[in-house]
Amino acid sequence: MSNASNTLRLMCVHAHPDDESSKGAATMARYVREGVEVLVVTCTGGERGDVLNPKMDRPEVQENLPRIRTEEMNRAREILGVRQHWLGFTDSGLPEGWLPDSGIALPDDAFYLVPTEKAAAPLVEIMRSFKPHVVTTYDEEGGYPHPDHVKTHEISVAAFRAAGDPEQYPDRGEAWRPSKLYYGHGFGKARVEALHQAMVDAGLESPYGDWLAGDQDWARDKSGRVTTRVECADYFHIRDEALKAHATQVDPDGFWFAVPREIQQKAWPTEDYELVESSVASRLPEDDLFAGLR
Ligand SMILES: [Zn+2]
């Protein structure tokens, strides 16, 4: 990979193909168009995902799901303008009721079951070759409790800390220390409430009513942890196109697209992050993942 010394680089680590388009995609689209090199790392192939779009739920799609999800990822990558790297682990699936301490068994080849030190090794290697200044991943709960999301968090933090240390993973390339690590907080309750209220105010039916009324522990408000809001409303259309490229996973007439884009742009024009580790000085709150690096 080419690494011009004056180019800023962003690495976004995700669990499955489609996560890059539903979490932080407008941020990536903005930075790509501002000249930042962006690499998406996808930990698993999404092999155990279901077909979530009724319009795509056909036997020939089911039979070829891994190949089709690869093609969908390629299309999303082109739309976003990013590069993308498969880490090669196998989707753990999401057994009903699974939580980290639930004792519910996962398949033997599940990404979640690979020891973190081992699973972080190929991520350290790609960090050392791509040399990102900024890395984004999920918070310690995975953003939501899917085993692959929790594991993605664990290996991202481990690799971020190890990549700059030549003593660790010495056979995985020359040490490179990324400067900043962020957790994405795209589904914070404050945002959902703002979108819900904007829909109600516009006289439209909000898709979030049940969600807000329910007791979604994982959706509890993490707004207090947000340090960095990246303005990216002008790029929501690119995010939406990338998400639609994952046609087996996303119903274009479903939940994801129930709030008109103009309402989203007004009600919540940012994607939000939590700065968790940094070796550069920047003043909080930030409006740029590269604050302190420019
Ligand atoms: Zn996922």
Task: Give a structural overview.
With 294 residues, this protein is an alpha/beta fold. The chain has helices at 19-22, 25-33, 59-63, 65-80, 116-119, 121-130, 147-162, 189-201, 209-213, 236-245, 261-267; strands at 9-14, 37-44, 83-89, 134-137, 180-184, 228-231, 270-278. It has a 7-stranded mixed sheet with strand order 3-2-1-4-5-7-6, sandwiched between helices. Helix 4 packs antiparallel against helix 10 (236-245) and helix 6 (121-130) packs across helix 7 (147-162). The protein binds zinc ion (ZN).
Describe the secondary structure blueprint for this structure.
Layout: E1 9-14, H1 19-22, H2 25-33, E2 37-44, H3 59-63, H4 65-80, E3 83-89, H5 116-119, H6 121-130, E4 134-137, H7 147-162, E5 180-184, H8 189-201, H9 209-213, E6 228-231, H10 236-245, H11 261-267, E7 270-278
Parallel strand pairs: 1-2, 1-4, 2-3, 4-5
Antiparallel strand pairs: 5-7, 6-7
The chain binds zinc ion.
Short overview:
With 294 residues, the chain is an alpha/beta fold.
Task: Provide the CATH topology.
Answer: Rossmann fold
Cofactors and ligands = zinc ion
Shape: globular
Tell me the helix content: 25-40%
Task: Summarize this structure as a short list of keywords or feature phrases.
globular, 294 residues, alpha/beta, 34% helix, 7 strands, 11 helices, seven-stranded mixed sheet, Rossmann fold, binds zinc ion
